[in-house]
Amino acid sequence: MEILIPLFGISVGIIVPLAVFYWQYHETKHKNETIIEISKNIDDPSKLEDLLHMLDERKKEPIDYRRGGIITIFVGLGICLLGYTAMGSFFVGIGYLVGAIGIGTMVAGYLYPNTGEELTNAVEEFERK
User: Fold this and answer.
1) What is the pTM of this model?
2) For residue 90, what are the contacts with CB-CB under 8 A and spacing of at least 6?
3) pLDDT for position 77
């Protein structure tokens, strides 16, 4: 009876990722089959282009490193506080490491502007100099 809990924990750790991969595979497979069936019935290439643009799930905006940096800093702070209160100095060190990575990510977001407006403002400011 005592061995069932560790076995259950190990099996859940294996079953959950496999189930997610299986689900993602079938979702993508059915979407691609649907696109193929629809494209067989469309004669106008411009309508097909519009359909592909509608189904495209990729983000059109660039990654905001400042936002990601702030989130990572606070995750590091949470790990650090967990180490102070319950887990020990190992987790405090990990929290500092994650926080430092977040600070680096945030600084990169300020050094390299990524939205169109920020890029335009940076170019205009450089041209004024």
Assistant:
1) 0.49
2) 83
3) 92
What's the pLDDT tens digit per position in 76-100? 999 999 888 888 888 899 999 999 9
- Tokens 């407006």 belong to residue: 117
Angle (nearest 5°) at CA 6 between 93 and 20 = 80
Answer left, alpha or beta for residue 36, where phi above 0 means left and psi between -120 and 50 means alpha: alpha
d(CA 74, CA 1): 41
**Residue closest to 98 by CA, chosen among 80, 125, 116:** 80
Q: Rounded to an integer, what distance in angstroms lies between the CA atom of residue 72 and that of residue 101? A: 7
